[in-house]
Amino acid sequence: MVRVIVVGGGLGGMAAAARLAKQGHEVALLEAGGRLGGALAPVHQDGYTWDAGPTSTLLPAALRDLFRKTGRPLEAELRGELEPLEVLREHRFADRTSVRLTGGSRAAQMAAMEELGPGLGRRWAEHVDSYGETWDLLRRHYVEAPWDPRAKVSTSKELDALLGSRETLHKRLRRDFRDERLALVAGHPAVAEGHDLRNVPSWVGVRAYLEQTFGGWRLPGGMARLADLLTARLATRKVSVRTSTPVTDLVVRGGRVVAVRTPEGEADADAVVVAVDPRRIPVLAPHVARTMPALPPVITHLGLSGDVPALTHEVVLHAEPLIVVRPGGSAPEGGTAWTLHGRGRLAEDIVDALARHRIDVRENIVTRVDLSPRQAVEQWHGSPMGVLWQGRGTVRRRLGPHTPIAGVYVAGAHGAPGAGVPFVTQSAALVAQLIGTAAR
């Protein structure tokens, strides 16, 4: 049995703690905030409730595997099934055209793109199809296998070539699409996470393949339920959970971690899983000094009343600033909950900017919660967007699941394989692979 301390109670930390406890280890989870969940935790005000962070997920197999490997299956805990999204996003462009991007269907996506112009469906399908082999390579050698960024040569020459490619996503989209609208759709997931496409490796565009092949999914009742289910799973697995307990540093002797340091004193550990931004841990900070966090957008949660426009799961307004509208959450009778994300030059109130796109709900606002990127990071004790892409070298400058310090591992958005619900969930599986099952 290994004494494991998990630092951080977001999705990555909870998933790692549950897996390691099921593998027979003595696990303690320390969370700086007053509750678990991180960006999964909901926001409440005046009878309205909003998802604070993600509202859906790709690759539901990652969540199903987590629950199956740690106890009862996810569907048994939900007492129902994950809900597939018929439309992933509606993209609206400056020329007043729009497209509804469906998930899980190549034919449906082709038909939708064809409505934008003759031949565009075929061009879109060719672009997405080109990522099929990329995903297979990443899945086998990066997403599902613990990859060491410090290794000069990995177990796969093909993976080394892919990760070392100089082609950016910006360049690839310009090569594949003459129609700017298709490039905007394909590049949106990375832009929404705060990245400049000129600094993003082209292989990151594999997201388009995942959306088309596996579709998007949401939990009935909202993604906040995932935090509740994992909190209960930690209790079942007898994980010792301590909230309002920040970890100020790790204690390292002879090149190996032996404890974590908190305001209350030191807690001994044989292994430590860091599921927060490594910059917050002084011992790890020098190893990620050449990276930066990708910052959250400007966030506004709106509690509305009366008649409001009926929108799909997510609407993306491609303009300056970029605005994303996410209807959802819960509201009192006669009310509606929306969340707005804004990126770019927000020189006016985001609700006023939204009105310029003919979505005017200013007279319907009952309550609102506004968060700047800095406020969101402070509230979540880090950015759930992970590491900012600064070129191809970024993949080797971030940590996880390995670190240069023996006994220290990294899970979560700031480690490999990166941000987003499925990848954060999978990062915990990678750490669990490395630590292994407790000896009996």
Give the SSE layout.
Elements: E1 3-7, H1 11-22, E2 26-30, E3 42-45, E4 48-51, H2 60-70, H3 74-78, E5 83-84, E6 87-92, E7 98-102, H4 106-114, H5 120-129, H6 132-143, H7 157-163, H8 169-176, H9 180-192, H10 207-214, E8 217-218, H11 224-236, E9 240-242, E10 249-253, E11 256-262, E12 265-268, E13 271-274, E14 298-305, E15 315-317, E16 322-327, E17 335-343, H12 350-355, E18 365-371, H13 373-380, H14 394-397, E19 408-410, H15 421-435
Parallel strand pairs: 1-2, 1-13, 2-9, 6-15, 13-19
Antiparallel strand pairs: 3-4, 5-8, 6-7, 10-11, 11-12, 14-17, 14-18, 15-16, 16-17
Provide a descriptive summary of the structure in words.
The chain is of the alpha/beta class and 440 residues long. Helix content is 32%, strand content 21%. The chain has 15 helices and 19 strands. It has helices at 11-22, 60-70, 74-78, 106-114, 120-129, 132-143, 157-163, 169-176, 180-192, 207-214, 224-236, 350-355, 373-380, 394-397, 421-435; strands at 3-7, 26-30, 42-45, 48-51, 83-84, 87-92, 98-102, 217-218, 240-242, 249-253, 256-262, 265-268, 271-274, 298-305, 315-317, 322-327, 335-343, 365-371, 408-410. The strands form 5 sheets. It has a 7-stranded mixed β-sheet. Strands 9-2-1-13-19 form a 5-stranded parallel β-sheet, with helices on one face. The longest helix has 15 residues, at 421-435. The protein is globular. The mean pLDDT is 95.
